[in-house]
Amino acid sequence: MEQTWEVYALKYGDRPGRTRNESFLFDDDHASPHPIDYFIWVIKRPGRTILVDTGYDTEEAKRRGRPILMHPVEALKSINIAPEEIDTVIVTHLHYDHAGTLDSFPNAMFHIQASEMAYATGPCMCMSALKMPFSVEHVVQMVKHVYSGKVIFYEGDAEIAPGVTVHAIGGHSKGLMSVRVKTEAGWLCLASDASHFYENFMAKKAFPIVVDVEAMYRGWEIIQSLASSTEQCVPGHDPLVLDLFPSVGPTGVVRLDRGATSRIS
Question: What pLDDT shows up at residue 3?
Answer without folding.
Answer: 86
